[in-house]
Amino acid sequence: MLIDLHTHSNASDGTDTPSQLIDKAINKGLDVVALTDHDTTRGWEEASQALLHHPSRSAMKLVLGAEISCQDAQGISIHMLGLLFDPRYTPLREELEKTRENRLSRMAKIITRLNEAGIDITIDEVYAQRKGDATLGRPHLADALVARGHVASRDEAFAALLHNKSKFYINHYSPSPSDAIRLIKEAGGVAIIAHPLASQRGRTISVELFDELISAGLDGVEVDHRDHSESEKSELIRLAIERDLIVTGSSDYHGTGKLNQLAEYTTHPRQWEALEARADASSSSAKVDSDEKWRGVVQR
After folding, report:
1. How far is CA 295 from the centre of its chain?
2. Using one digit for the tens of pLDDT, what is the confidence trace for 191-206?
3. What angle, rounded to 10 degrees, do the helices at 18-28 and 44-52 form?
4. Are 180 and 82 in contact (CB under 8 A)?
5. Read out DSSP for 19-69?
């Protein structure tokens, strides 16, 4: 059973439409795939309809979620995967919108720094790389740099200019990880911290912060991920066992321009079942906008 709980479409910074993502996931033989665009649920409807009306009549399950941008008190960037939450829960929806809006001013500041270093690029060129009102992110800037001929690929853009340790990097407003977890849980979902020890991305969180997040309701930790070294994976497995966290693995697929491939890392079925059970338990007490129970899984 193939389960990939972290993918992106062009509703944020992926290159595939939600429909294309569903088609590729089915062709890959996935049994479960989660759509987790950055700070948005805007791809949910298209992805859901694509699965329901797919000509293959696939039995694949689509898990609806989002990757929420967070930062701790030290300014360390932390990404929280929220799955199976009710998008109608107003406080969470408003927080996602606030984070999306602040990405715009952050992008302008990054571009200013690049221009000051002699790298000619404009905000209009970056906007031209995104689809509609998709969540703006550094991959769109990377694509604009490729189009201008400054670099050859997204990977090169991140390696040379846009990584978290770069002098051009700037944080944007985002909730604390504890607040993000609280909102996800109030909306009936489950919270998994994404690639928490990926040191090549920048500074990583401390074990002490893990304890704080667990107290806030953290359900799981993404262990198997391209950006984790074997030693980082081992450390996370040990922590998950000690603190009773669910373990996930996933591709963090973004489409073309990044090496990540669908299902290159996956989640064990028993771990997925445990996440679903926690979401069911959370939904029974979720502070959602409607009395109707929300279930963020789509299947034929």
Report:
1. 19
2. 999 999 887 666 667 7
3. 50
4. yes
5. HHHHHHHHHHT-SEEEEEEET--TTHHHHHHHHHT-TT----EEEEEEEEE
d(CA 220, CA 192): 4
The full set of domain ranges for the chain reads: 3-97+172-298, 104-162
- Report helix, strand or coil for 194: strand
User: What is residue 240's DSSP assignment?
Assistant: H
What pLDDT score does 57 carry? 92
Q: What is the pLDDT of residue 130?
A: 85
pLDDT digits 0-9 by tens, 25-50: 999 999 999 999 999 999 999 999 99
Supply the angle between the helices 207-216 and 230-243 in degrees, to the nearest 10. 40
Instruction: For Cα atoms 10, 133, 298, give the angle at the middle one, nearest 5 degrees.
Output: 50
Give the C-alpha separation, 54 to 66, whole Å: 23
Structural element, H or E, at residue 3: strand 3-7
CATH number of 104-162: 1.10.150.650
d(CA 158, CA 164): 9
Which alpha helices (DSSP H) does the chain contain, by range?
Answer: 18-28, 44-52, 90-116, 123-127, 138-148, 154-157, 177-186, 207-216, 230-243, 269-283
Whether residue 62 contacts residue 299, with contact meaning beta carbons closer than 8 Å, is answered with yes
Q: Which CATH code for domain 3-97+172-298?
A: 3.20.20.140
The dihedral through the CA atoms of 208, 213, 219, 221 has a sign that is negative
